[in-house]
Design brief:
Elements (H helix, E strand, L loop, with lengths): L1 E3 L2 H13 L4 E6 L5 H13 L2 E6 L9 H6 L4 H11 L4 E3 L3 H4 L19 H4 L3 H16 L3 E5 L3 H14 L4 E5 L19 H6 L1 H13 L5 H13 L4 E10 L15 E9 L2 E9 L1
Parallel strand pairs: 1-4, 2-3, 2-5, 3-4, 5-6
Antiparallel strand pairs: 7-8, 8-9
Helix pairs in contact: 7-8
Bound molecules: pantoate (PAF).
The site of pantoate has 10 residues, from β2 and α7.
Length: 282
């Protein structure tokens, strides 16, 4: 596996691969790799000649410096995981100046309102930061296809919107949430939870499954009350939000409409760690 530590080295590598007509699958990350990331690479490997990943903790998508500082970083461990996986051909590990040559600042995007829903309400500017880094990475890596996890469903929707509006020459694929044995969605943040709290957090997935059973049977207002009751009974967990939204507009809905797709979204704080999850409702 090639470890590409600057924009120049990356560009030479990509140019050679393009000359050979290789189809490139790309999965950007912020490191702290886990099996959820590996599931992106697996899908990318199935569908491409070459799999490229990146590791870059993007400063502009963090809302506060404390969160940025606390973000887990262990580049040697990540490189080892990538090498051992046998799934990735090259990893790009840029310097901040490779991505932000002048100011470390986001561009402003209009994602047709998707950015104002859910995570956008509590994390101002976050999606501008994501859009900026992902667009720049696409420009540099020039992938044919790029892979993102559905755990961050709003991020995936926003990236699809950016690609559509800017007509970027890349296809975006969403990959289903990778869950641990107890159902907890894998996230780099889980590292900050004690083992017993990880076990307790399975209530998040169990609740989403119940919501899927209640959907179309009970009124959404009642489902919301039931979910609140479940988390009121959990020690040391706060429900930040739970809602059901239209999968395309991400707008919260109080009613079920025929012909539209809906998804449940949840954010729970467990011992100060913010866990997010979602589920398509059938
Ligand atoms: O999902 C992530 O890890 C990040 O938001 C991404 C897409 C790599 C952009 O920094």
């Amino acid at each position: 596996m090639e470890v590409l530590k600057s924009k120049k080295v990356l560009q030479d590598f990509i140019e050679r691969q393009k000359e050979m007509g290789k189809k490139i699958g790309f999965a950007p990350t912020m490191g702290a790799l886990h099996n959820g990331h590996l599931s992106l690479y697996e899908k990318a490997k199935e569908e491409n000649d070459l799999v490229v990943s990146s590791i870059f903790v993007n400063p502009t998508q963090f809302n506060n410096p404390e969160d940025l500082n606390k973000y887990p970083r262990d580049i040697n461990r990540d490189i080892l995981i990538l090498k051992n996986s046998g799934l990735v051909d090259a990893v790009y590990i840029p310097e901040v100046t490779d991505i932000y040559p002048e100011k470390t600042e986001s561009q402003s995007y209009n994602f047709d309102g998707l950015e104002n829903e859910m995570e956008g309400k509590s994390r101002p500017g976050h999606f501008d930061g994501v859009g900026t880094v992902v667009e720049e990475l696409f420009n540099q890596v020039k992938p044919d296809t790029a892979y993102f996890g559905e755990k961050d469903f709003q991020q995936l929707a926003i990236i699809k919107k950016m690609v559509e509006k800017k007509k970027l020459p890349v296809k975006i694929i969403g990959v289903s949430i990778y869950r641990g044995e107890n159902g907890l969605a894998l996230s780099s943040r889980n590292q900050r939870l004690h083992e017993d709290r990880k076990e307790d957090s399975k209530v998040i997935y169990e609740t989403l499954k119940k919501v899927n059973e209640w959907f179309r049977v009970k009124p959404i207002s009642e489902i919301k009350e039931k979910v609140q009751d479940i988390f009121d009974q959990q020690r040391g967990m706060q429900l930040e939000y739970f809602l059901i939204a239209d999968e395309d507009t991400l707008k919260e809905t109080d009613f079920f409409y025929k012909g539209r797709s809906f998804r449940a979204f949840i954010v729970v704080i467990v011992d100060g760690v913010r866990l997010i999850d979602n589920m398509h409702l059938d």
